[in-house]
Amino acid sequence: MKIEVKSEKLQDCTAQCVLVGVFEGEQDLPASLKDVDEKMDGALTGLFTNGEISGKKKNTQFVHTFGKTMVRRIMMVGLGKQEELSFEDMRDISARATKEALRAEATQLAFALDREADALGAFDAAHAFVEGAMLANYRFPGYHKETEEKPELEELTILCAGDTANEVTEGIRVAEALARGTNLARDLVNMPSNYLTPTVLSEKAKEIAERYNMKVEILDKADMEVYGMGGLLGVSQGSIEPPKLIAIKYQGTDKWENVIGFVGKGITFDSGGISLKPGAGMDEMKGDMGGAAAVLGALEAIGTLKPAVNIAAVIPTTENMPSGSALKPGDVITTMSGKTVEILNTDAEGRLILADGMSYARKIGASYLIDLATLTGAAMVALGTCTTAALTNNEALMEEVMEAAVEAGELVWRLPGYKPYMDQIKSQIADLKNTGGRNAGAITAGLFVGEFAEGTPWVHLDIAGTAWADKAGDLSPTGGTGAMVRTLAKLVLRRAEKTETD
């Protein structure tokens, strides 16, 4: 999709449709429409004066210019009350307007940035609009023999005042990077597991790393045996697909220090193993690598934006399958850390591979750890599908993540990590057991992973509910959502900005 910034007047725009924001209760014609109104003999003024244009949030109305201007149609887009307009509102409004325009088969759009810039600032208004449009435009092509042609956004032009062009251009640059990273994560989650095996996932990770000159290392089974990665090896032993551990280093400063570690769960298909899942809905378990997808999507955005920070990204990836060689309930494994784990349920496998991923991230220099995983159904029971569950051992890092999530427009809620919960995952015959039972399942699963932080500042993000959408919304179709890509990227960008100002 081509995106550009222009300072031309609306009536000279050649887009198929120009979008103009209107605040609720507004009766004065937006400045961007005044010249068009003259060419239309005051017709637009009449519509506003008579209250026929609604500024109700997300309301859209097409107005035809009947050949009196270069642009054929203008879409009036409701912004809601001016004093209430937020970045998230602007992004959601853009997504709704983009989808309405595409339904009308308008694939070349322009947005007249006017009073939105006064309300949000030119940078944020442009950022929000472009991000919303790109997220709404996302399509997963699928594997049909004959593809149904659906309109997609081809061109997007932001019309703005000349003195705001630089701010607008920078806002668009950030928005493009974040949306592209989010859409990459969506693609990975939506891919069937026979197309996205651990080997293919490692190849895609390598492509991203090499594209942005990041260092990449792919560990195979023999390497894992050397490191004693019993968690990853144990989960993988039921599958014919070989496991991989992906390690990517992004170095944005002169010294490899203050390294943020991203650890993403990469189960490319989760049958539950010997503790087999019910058949209904098991097809969605191709998305059990949503944590890995979020990490790779964030690296895609970070590679474009090049913040001055250091990142160690680690993705343990495998399938979890039942077979004669599969891990069994009652088995005891030894993780890379040396800690032993009693296996009570082979469907609690994500925490086992994350254990080794956390240890390896620390080995390659991570000073802070953030793990992301579609880890527990319990997180969905607690928080539904709109909010990511979080746990931490470090208040300052948790606050950073929460602030980044707010800025990214993603909902995160912290769960308690009190010591009594640890009693639920103590084993009589090993250091830990891999499930603490039904009560507080999201908490005990997160605390299990946190044991392998071993004192390193750590935040756990359980995206079981947020990584997949059962129904389409303004920003996303059904399937993978790309949850937490933008939060990770925002966290990094905020750190870089703070370093520059210190």
TrEMBL record:
* UniProt domain Cytosol aminopeptidase: residue ranges: 345-352
Q: How is the cofactor bound?
A: Binds 2 manganese ions per subunit.
Write out the GO cellular component annotations.
cytoplasm
Name the Enzyme Commission number(s) assigned to this protein.
3.4.11.1, 3.4.11.10
Which key words are in the record? Aminopeptidase, Cytoplasm, Hydrolase, Manganese, Metal-binding, Protease
Residues annotated for Mn(2+) 2 binding in this entry = 265, 270, 288, 349
**Annotated InterPro entries:** Leucine_aapep/pepB (IPR011356), Macro_dom-like (IPR043472), Peptidase_M17_C (IPR000819), Peptidase_M17_leu_NH2_pept (IPR023042), Peptidase_M17_N (IPR008283)
Has keyword Chaperone? no
Q: Which Pfam families match?
A: Peptidase_M17 (PF00883), Peptidase_M17_N (PF02789)
Location in the cell reads: Cytoplasm
GO BP, one annotated term:
proteolysis
- Give the EC class as a word: hydrolase
Positions with a binding annotation for Mn(2+) 1: 270, 347, 349
Q: Which residues form the active site?
A: 277, 351
Catalysed reaction equations from the record = Release of an N-terminal amino acid, Xaa-|-Yaa-, in which Xaa is preferably Leu, but may be other amino acids including Pro although not Arg or Lys, and Yaa may be Pro. Amino acid amides and methyl esters are also readily hydrolyzed, but rates on arylamides are exceedingly low; Release of an N-terminal amino acid, preferentially leucine, but not glutamic or aspartic acids
Q: Which cofactor does it need?
A: Mn(2+)
Molecular function GO terms recorded = manganese ion binding; metalloaminopeptidase activity
* Functional summary from the UniProt entry: Presumably involved in the processing and regular turnover of intracellular proteins. Catalyzes the removal of unsubstituted N-terminal amino acids from various peptides.
Homology family:
Belongs to the peptidase M17 family.
UniProt-recorded name of the protein: Probable cytosol aminopeptidase
Q: What is the lineage of its organism?
A: Bacteria, Bacillati, Bacillota, Bacilli, Bacillales
In the UniProt record, what gene is named as encoding this protein?
pepA
